[in-house]
Amino acid sequence: DIVMTQSPDSLAVSLGERATINCKSSQSVLYRSNDKNYLAWYQQKPGQPPKLLIYWASTREFGVPDRFSGSGSGTDFTLTISSLQAEDVAVYYCQQYDSTPYTFGQGTKLEIK
Amino acid sequence: EVQLVQSEAEVKKPGESLKISCKGSGYSFTNYWIGWVRQMPGKGLEWMGIIYPGDSDTRYNPSFQGQVTISADKSISTAYLQWSSLKASDTAMYYCARPKSPGASNYGMDVWGQGTTVTVSS
How far apart are CA A45 and CA A86, in angstroms? Predict the structure, then answer.
């Protein structure tokens, strides 16, 4: 199985500041024939199902604010929130969908400082 | 509107059987894979497995293989997750979710059910 490891486990950022969450996979999720990274990011707020934010590591889902961005390739990925808003308080998960089982990271809890 | 609607919360005793459901609407149910994700209380997301309702092709996470059965009835646009003998450790929220692209299991999941809480307690 591909192991996904996120860092940090929790993060406190001031409103308007940048938040950065990292995700590392135990093996590459880059499929060289199409140059796509099989990596998604989700946001989960309390009492709600997860919401897809980013897929192919850097493609923003329709309707997701442009303060959310994804980057990285191969085994190292980053989710960046450029200017934290109060409604961004949530747990964030990365997931690889390169090979089954499509494993998730352990989650990063983002709070307001 | 594209949506997945899951069955209501369940409270069961250890050893009992259970089948929970996930009904798709607003899209061609047979053309999209449906996955199941477990979230134990206060914990993270675990990918359990995925099924293609068009031909019932199913992939399991080895950690869940033999513990649950994933199935689908395309005639009523419904996927299922079932247990033959529940344990207390099966207590969790279970979500169904649909990958974004038709015919592809390997995609981000853009449509999620509301979740079904399963509580197993004597």
Answer: 12
Flag whether pLDDT at B103 surpasses 90.
no
Per-residue pLDDT reduced to its tens digit, B65-97: 999 999 999 999 999 999 999 999 999 999 999
Q: Which two tokens stand for residue A93?
A: 């998960």
At B33-67, the pLDDT tens digits run 999 999 999 999 999 999 999 999 999 999 999 99
Whether A72 contacts A57, CB under 8 Å: yes
Q: Are B108 and A55 inside 8 Å of each other by CB?
A: yes
Contact at CB, B108 and A100, closer than 8 angstroms = no
Rounded to an integer, the average pLDDT of A8-26 is 98
Q: What is the dihedral angle through the alpha carbons of B99, B104, B108, B109, rounded to the nearest 10 degrees?
A: 10
The span from the CA of B74 to the CA of B55, in Å, is 9
Residue B29: what are its φ and ψ, rounded to 5°? -60, -35
DSSP string, B84-121: SS--GGG-EEEEEEEESSTT-SSS-EEEE---EEEEE-
The two three-digit tokens of residue A85, written as one number: 């808003």
Which H or E run includes A35? none
Q: Does any CB of chain B come closer than 8 Å to the CB of residue A92?
A: no
Residue ranges of the alpha helices (H) in B7-101?
A: none
